[in-house]
Amino acid sequence: MPQTLEDLATIDNKLSQRHIDLDPNGYFIIYLDREAGLICAKHFTNIINERGLAVDPETGKPIPVRGKVERTHTKVFSGRTAKELCVQIFEKNQLSIVSRLDHAAYLGREFVRAEIALVTDQEYVQD
Fold first, then answer.
1. In degrees rounded to 5, what are phi and psi of residue 90?
2. What is the pLDDT of residues 82-95, one digit of tens each?
3. Among 14, 27, 28, 90, who pairs with 41 as Cys (CB 3.0-4.6 Å)?
C-alpha cells in the first residue's frame, strides 16, 4: 500500500526519538551558507562520560543539546552537494572523525536534507 507524506513523516519522527549512542570521536553542526551555495559541517570533539553524555574535553561539563554553545570546532567541511560533502569527510579526510556507522548514516541523511533545503530555498534545521 502506498505511503502518504504524512505517514512517512510519522515514521521518521518516531525514529528520531529513539536512543542512540553518541560518537566518541565527536559531533557535527550542519548549516547552510546560502550566499556561497554550500552545505557546511563543523566538527567538534567530545568525550562520552560514564552516563553516556557528551562532555567538553576541556571543561568536563556536559554539552547541552539545545541552545547556543561556545566551543571551538576542529574543522569545517563544505560541499555543494551531500555527496561532495560525504566524499570530503569519509574518503578524503585522513582523520577518523566518525567512528560509528549509525553516525555516518545519520550524517548522510542530514546532508541530503540540507541539500534539498538549499536547492528549494527552504529552511534547514538539523534533526
1. -95, -20
2. 999 999 999 987 77
3. 28
**Beta strand extents in 49-110 (DSSP E only):** 54-55, 75-79
Q: Coil, strand or helix: which one is 28?
A: strand
Residues 6+ positions from 109 with CB-CB distance below 8 Å: 127
Tell me the C-alpha distance between 89 and 87, whole Å: 6
Contact 39, 85 (CB under 8 A): yes
CA distance 25 to 117: 27
> Residue 81: is it exposed, middle or buried by C-beta count within 10 angstroms (0-12/13-18/19+)?
middle
pTM: 0.84
Q: How many CA atoms lie within 13 A of 127 on its CB side?
A: 20
Residues near 57 by beta carbon (within 8 Å), at least 6 away in sequence: 45, 46, 47
Q: Where are the domains of the chain?
A: 5-120
- Per DSSP, what are the bridge partners of residue 2? none
